[in-house]
Amino acid sequence: MKLLVTVLALVVQVFSLENGLMRTPPMGWLAWERYRCNIDCKEDPDNCISERLFMDVADRLAEDGWRDLGYNYINIDDCWMTPERDENGLLVADPERFPHGIKYLADYVHSRGLKLGIYGDMGNRTCMGYPGTTLDKVVLDAQTFASWDVDMLKLDSCYSNPEDRAQGYPSMSKALNATGRPIAYSCSWPAYDGGLPPEVNYTLLMDICNLWRNYDDIQDSWQSVLTIVDWFTKHQEVLQPVAGPGHWNDPDMLLIGNYGLSFEQAKSQMALWTIFAAPLFMSTDLRTISAQNADILQNKLMIEINQDPLGIQGRKILRTEDAIEVYVRPLSRKASAIVFFSRRTDMPYRYHTTLRSLNFTDSPLYEAQDVYTENVVSGLTVDTKFTVVINPSGVVMWYLYPISGLENPLASKKFLRL
Ligand code: GLA
Predict the structure, then answer these.
(1) Which atom of ligand 1 approaches the CA of 191 most closely?
(2) Considering the domain 315-402 in this protein, what is its CATH number?
(3) Do you know which Pfam families this protein is assigned to (predicted)?
(4) CATH T-level topology, domain 27-307
(5) Best substitution site from 36, 39, 78 to test ligand 1's pocket, by max atoms within 8 Å of Cβ?
(6) Residue 250 has what pLDDT?
(7) Which amino acids bring their CB within 6 angstroms of ligand 1?
(8) pTM over 0.85
């Protein structure tokens, strides 16, 4: 019997990811949104996809407080390879732009206390035309990445068909596990099959991937953020239950620090991604980011909420006729995150409500801390009428927690100080 159990356990290990990684949403930096496929290092040496860019970013992550807040992945995206595999069929980093190879970069990144992510494509070619990982190359590429000491793989899926994806994504999961190196696995599979059942099997994804891109690529605009938010909330009945420790929905990178978002919109993206229990991958120039944008990304209470150990994705719970939306995410210690989001384009809106109308009825007394201003609102009963002032395309975000009548409220505030 004991032997049978051991054998079964081994079988389960072989067929499911269970790599123990990403018990909370991953955090870090990913090159694509900001740096795309800029390979012109002559014209633009500071911003081309090269070893230098990744080493610069690694330095910033390590030295400017990012790593210590949890932003510990630094991830390469498309356009790192030579146009063809080498004579042994191996993927090779472009020798001009990555003169020391990926292993050297991984060693450097590790020496800075960070982890390195890399990009591949389950298909004939990557989206920008570099060599893809066809079915016959899955094991070889997994071994190559492991031999370079890579810590994460984003597996895209341009130039593929549904049948190859259905075979290739689980095979890569198995192949990564078989290397013996813990390599987190980000699957773009659902995004290529419409993001929804029955074409997408989220039960399977939860077993084989640590995170997955469900939907379209984010672009540097507020419109793009809204399209993504609306798709995720429209399908929240499907998407919300499949997220949890070790397996996350990925609405794509944070735009904060780039060109498309206003200050209010940047705060909104951060708050909504946190409600969604989303991975926090920045994609911006950390060498020149403004203090204002860095403050949004480095907000400690925000990060604590994003990284809540329960790992429950939040939901949109209502939209008023006045275009105010309310989102709630349950957190550990009976706390919750609430985002009041204005879809208005006129002026700051005074939204009046009560906790009861937002379905908070469990405790006689609550207290809330505003995540951005740090103001504390105390003495909230379920029927206390309160007002939040929400700027156009902005948010007010609360960390709400119950206070039992006998407790000193200050005691729970201590927990908020990280
Ligand atoms: C696809 C992905 C993007 C990025 C590009 C690279 O569009 O969805 O995130 O990786 O390919 O070419």
Answers:
(1) 8
(2) 2.60.40.1180
(3) Melibiase_2 (PF16499), Melibiase_2_C (PF17450)
(4) TIM Barrel (3.20.20)
(5) 78
(6) 99
(7) 32, 77-78, 126-128, 156, 188, 217
(8) yes
